[in-house]
């Protein structure tokens, strides 16, 4: 009879491998502020760290934006592409919000078109698990094996833990990505006060008037055009800055 200690010791390698995987994923994503680059890093890490997994792909759907697809090997990228619609394990996992598994694709009948291409690429087993990033972003982590029956219970458990952990990290990456975009937009677009000050300077130069008189000119133009003062100011500054034909 096996003791409880024996059972725990048998599980230790899998526990340690999973812990190492989560640490590596955390290290790779925690400092990233590029969402698509983070997806690619996740795919490569999962391929290298999960036993029996030959390739890994990640499919992500973002509301109001094109879908993102990352793959640990470029030639398998099409397997995770949303152009297949619901015909594929990734989209099935995303739609049903549950783990999708096929031990041997040679007997698979759910995704005939997708399965044909997967088999042609040397894929025999697939495991797709949904990942939730935030209220606007959902996706699937897709594990592929070259050998049939290679993706079993251990890989399923690891994939579910990975999806939960990666979802939290990708949510943080997405937040940083959005913040970086906002900062960049702020830098590119002058503030309302600054653009109005620039317009006042232009009017003072053109008319030889005071700042108070220039501001009144802006306000009068704003009322006449039914436009905010800032928009009138921006048009004026842009027109002055535009190169003239010689």
Q: Which secondary structure elements does this structure contain, and how are they paired or packed?
A:
Layout: H1 4-29, H2 35-49, E1 55-62, E2 68-71, H3 89-96, E3 100-102, H4 112-120, E4 125-134, E5 137-145, H5 153-188, H6 192-207, H7 211-225, H8 229-241
Antiparallel strand pairs: 1-2, 1-5, 3-4, 4-5
Helix pairs in contact: 1-2, 1-5, 2-5, 6-7, 6-8, 7-8
Features:
2 domains, 14% strand, alpha+beta, 246 residues, transcription regulation, GAF_ANTAR, five-stranded antiparallel β-sheet, ANTAR, GAF-like_dom_sf, elongated, GAF and ANTAR domain-containing protein, disordered N terminus, Beta-Lactamase, Arc Repressor Mutant, subunit A
Order of helices and strands: HHEEHEHEEHHHH
Number of domains: 2
CATH level-3 fold name of the largest domain: Beta-Lactamase
Structural class: alpha+beta
Q: What's the CATH class label of the largest domain?
A: Alpha Beta
Tell me the name of the CATH homologous superfamily of the largest domain: Transcription factor LuxR-like, autoinducer-binding domain
Shape: elongated
Radius of gyration: 28 Å
Average pLDDT taken over every residue: 84
Largest sheet: 5 strands, antiparallel
Q: Report helical residue fraction.
A: 55-70%
Span between termini:
96 Å
| Unreliable stretches covering 5 or more consecutive residues | 1-13
CATH architecture of the largest domain: 2-Layer Sandwich
Strand content: 5-15%
Q: Going across the major beta sheet, what is the strand order?
A: 2-1-5-4-3
Count of DSSP-assigned helices: 8
């Amino acid at each position: 009879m096996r003791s409880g200690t024996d059972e725990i010791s048998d599980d230790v390698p899998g526990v340690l491998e999973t812990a190492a995987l989560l640490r590596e994923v955390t290290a790779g994503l925690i400092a990233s502020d590029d969402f698509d680059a983070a997806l690619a890093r996740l795919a490569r890490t999962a391929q290298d760290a999960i036993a029996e997994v030959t390739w890994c792909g990640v499919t992500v759907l973002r509301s109001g934006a094109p879908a993102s697809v990352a793959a640990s090997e470029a030639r398998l990228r099409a397997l995770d592409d949303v152009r297949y619609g619901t015909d594929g394990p990734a989209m099935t996992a995303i739609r049903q919000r549950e783990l999708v598994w096929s031990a041997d694709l040679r007997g698979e009948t759910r995704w005939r078109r997708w399965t044909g291409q997967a088999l042609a690429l040397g894929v025999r087993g697939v495991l797709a698990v949904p990942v939730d990033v935030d209220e606007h972003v959902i996706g699937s982590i897709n594990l592929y094996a070259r050998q049939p029956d290679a993706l079993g219970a251990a890989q399923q458990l690891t994939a579910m833990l990975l999806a939960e952990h990666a979802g939290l990290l990708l949510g943080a990456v997405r937040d940083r990505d959005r913040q970086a975009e906002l900062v960049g937009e702020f830098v590119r677009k002058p503030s309302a006060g600054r653009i109005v000050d620039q317009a006042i300077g232009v009017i003072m130069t053109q008319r030889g008037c005071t700042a108070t008189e220039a501001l009144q000119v802006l306000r009068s133009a704003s009322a006449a055009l039914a436009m905010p003062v800032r928009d009138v100011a921006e048009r004026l500054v842009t027109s002055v800055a535009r190169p003239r034909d010689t």
